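User: Just a sanity check before I run the rest of the batch. Below are the C-alpha cells for the first item. I only need the designed sequence back.
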C-alpha cells in the first residue's frame, strides 16, 4: 500500500449521531468509545455517564455534532438492575475489590426487604465512595484509595425515583432502581445493607436506560463489529439523530429567516406559548438546529447550535 493510500485510509470522517452500546464487562468506558470510534472512522467522539469497568449496559456514545448533547445526558435519570451480595463487604464496594468485612445475613422476608428499599425513595444526601473518579486537591479519589488513604468527602444530593425488589435468595438481593445523576449505586447497596443490619457489595451492575433511551435500542459490541464488517455505512445507519436525546424538551419550528438568525447565534421571536425552559429547535424540512431557551419575553435564545445534515433529524 502506498503512503498516499495509507493516508486516505487513516483520514477520519465527519460522523454525526449517537450509538447506544451495551458495554461488556471488563472494559472501561473510554476503551469502548475508542473501539467504536475506530470502527466508524469518526473524527470526533465522546461518551456520557461512565460505567465502571465491571459494570455492563447502556453507554451512549456520541459522535460529531452529537457530542453537544453529552452535557444534557449527564443530567439524565438512569435505571439500573443491581445484584447485591449480602454478608460480604469489599474495599471497592464491588466484586473487583478485596474482602474487608463479613456479617451475618439478616432473617428477613421479601416484604421486609421491600420496606427497607422503599425507605430510600426520594431525596437524600449520599457520601461518594473513595473508589471514584471524583477529585480531592487535584487527585482522583481512587488514586488515594489505592494508596490506602481515606479522605473526608462532602455528601451530595441524590434522588431515587423508584426502587423495586426483583429477586431474593440466600445472599443474593436483586433490585431495579431509577435514580438521578451523581448517584453511586455501589454506595446505595452498602447503605441498604447497613439499614438491614449487615454488609454487602455490588456483585453485578447493569444499566438499562439513560434518559429517554431504552434497552431495546442498545447494540452489543459484537453486533457493532459485525455491522462494521459489512461496511461503515451499515454501522452508521444504526446511529440515532442527536435530537433523540432531547425529547423531554418541547419542539419549536422556525421559518427560514428566523432559522438563519438562530443558527447565527441570535435570539428570535417564538410563536409557541412556552415562556421558560429549553426547547428543541427545527428549521425547514424539520432540520434540527439546536437547543434554545425561552427568555420570558417571547424570545428564544440559542444555547447550543447544531450543524446537522437534513437526514439526521427526528420527525416531530
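Assistant: Here's the designed sequence for the first item:
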Amino acid at each position: 500500500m502506498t503512503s498516499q493510500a495509507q493516508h486516505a485510509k487513516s483520514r477520519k470522517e465527519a460522523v454525526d449521531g449517537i450509538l447506544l452500546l451495551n458495554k461488556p464487562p471488563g472494559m472501561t468506558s473510554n476503551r469502548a468509545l475508542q473501539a467504536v470510534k475506530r470502527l466508524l472512522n469518526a473524527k470526533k467522539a465522546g461518551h456520557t455517564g461512565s460505567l465502571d469497568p465491571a459494570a455492563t449496559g447502556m453507554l451512549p456514545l456520541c459522535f460529531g455534532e452529537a457530542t453537544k448533547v453529552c452535557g444534557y445526558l449527564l443530567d439524565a435519570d438512569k435505571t439500573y438492575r443491581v445484584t447485591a451480595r449480602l454478608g460480604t463487604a469489599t474495599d471497592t464496594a464491588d466484586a473487583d475489590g478485596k474482602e474487608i468485612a463479613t456479617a451475618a445475613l439478616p432473617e428477613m422476608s421479601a416484604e421486609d426487604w421491600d420496606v427497607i428499599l422503599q425507605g430510600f425513595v426520594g431525596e437524600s444526601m449520599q457520601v461518594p465512595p473513595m473508589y471514584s473518579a471524583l477529585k480531592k486537591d487535584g487527585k482522583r479519589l481512587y488514586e488515594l484509595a489505592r494508596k490506602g488513604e481515606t479522605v473526608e468527602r462532602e455528601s451530595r444530593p441524590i434522588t431515587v425515583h423508584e426502587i423495586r425488589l426483583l429477586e431474593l435468595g440466600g445472599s443474593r438481593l436483586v433490585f431495579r432502581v431509577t435514580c438521578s445523576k451523581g448517584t453511586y449505586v455501589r454506595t446505595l447497596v452498602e447503605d441498604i445493607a447497613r439499614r438491614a443490619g449487615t454488609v454487602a457489595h455490588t456483585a453485578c451492575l447493569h444499566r438499562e436506560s439513560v434518559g429517554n433511551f431504552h434497552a431495546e435500542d442498545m447494540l452489543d459490541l459484537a453486533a457493532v463489529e459485525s455491522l462494521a464488517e459489512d461496511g461503515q455505512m451499515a454501522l452508521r445507519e444504526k446511529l440515532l439523530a442527536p435530537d433523540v436525546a432531547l425529547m423531554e424538551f418541547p419542539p419549536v419550528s422556525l421559518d427560514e429567516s428566523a432559522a438563519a438568525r438562530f443558527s447565527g447565534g441570535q435570539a428570535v421571536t417564538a410563536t409557541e406559548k412556552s415562556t421558560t425552559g429549553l426547547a428543541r429547535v427545527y428549521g425547514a424540512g424539520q432540520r434540527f438546529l439546536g437547543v434554545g431557551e425561552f427568555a420570558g419575553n417571547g424570545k428564544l435564545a440559542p444555547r447550543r447550535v447544531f450543524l446537522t445534515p437534513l437526514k439526521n433529524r427526528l420527525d416531530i
